[in-house]
Amino acid sequence: MVAEVPAFKHKYTERVIPFTAGDGMALNLINVQGEKPPSKCPVLLVHGAGVRANIFRAPVEVTIVDALIAQGYDVWLENWRASIDFAPNLWTLDQAALYDHPQAVKTVIAETGVSEIKAIIHCQGSTSFTMSAMAGLIPEVTTIVSNAVSLHPVVSKWSLFKLTYLLPLVKVMSQYLNPHWGVQAPTLIAKIITLLVNLTHHECNNAVCKQVSFTYGSGFPALWSHENLNEETHEWLKEEFAAVPLCFFEQITRCINVGNLVSVQGFKELPDDFVQATPKTDARFAFFTGANNLCFLPQSQLNTYEYFSALRQNYHTLHILPDYGHLDVFMGKNAAQDTFPLIIQELEKTNT
């Protein structure tokens, strides 16, 4: 039975808990609780590239944080090294998988005193967290709800063209791409890209929305459908996207060409090729994707679901959400009715 999500606001208590990643980088968690103490286990929410933990709290009537708290969960938002709350840095998925997520999980365990938690992971938070799980670095996580992409990144031909041919040109002048250049373009390469985006993207008047589509996908727009966003969210997202390093795009391009996640830094704790290594996790995965995802095609999650199901039948699940794309799964004005109940249903399941 699909859980119902109540449409009302809570008064919350928030704590910011700093933690130190395995390589010494200062990161943090945001613990959000309602007026009543949580009655269920902690759930860790992990954002994607070039955004921050706040991406799960768009200005909609009911956010995923609201929905989880209403169901009694103890909500923890992770700001890992890709977060725009921190200074831009040349991060890789390997670093996040080895240094960030395992320490975030350990911090939640230490703060709450529980032995097991669950997680909701999105985009590059999902790929890197999946790497952590498959390498056996987060055994405390028993259920993982993964949105958009995990083990098998698949993109459109146009996206692959941009990654293959445009990325090296940008790298000559910058180590980063930044959708916020649509608001302020401080350098020559920022001005060139802004001009290119303005010449080719006419889907709306939001400069950051258009830059996001150029940076992360092949659509107009790429990460959501405009009809799924309310006006306040569309305006709010101007300040929710910033710098993402080209070294990440180089790694994900390599993964796309191989067909699955590969590591690039030679850390002994991570396999070179994640499909060739046996997963060191008993976690149950619930794979989600929007049917209209133009950042990572739905085939991405389908391929990963089939891979995990071949290893353990009737254990993992797949949800392809009609009329949704990439981030509107969480930010959509109707997501509380369309997607959140399915996510909560997966969290409620007992792993057998």
UniProtKB/TrEMBL annotation:
**Which keywords does the record carry?**
FAD, Flavoprotein, Oxidoreductase
Protein name per its UniProtKB record:
Esterase
Which cofactor(s) does the record list?
FAD
Q: Name the source's superkingdom.
A: Bacteria
The organism of origin for this protein: Methyloprofundus sedimenti
What family does this belong to? Belongs to the GMC oxidoreductase family.
Q: Which SUPFAM superfamilies match?
A: alpha/beta-Hydrolases
Q: Answer yes or no on keyword Translocase.
A: no
Q: Does the keyword Flavoprotein apply?
A: yes
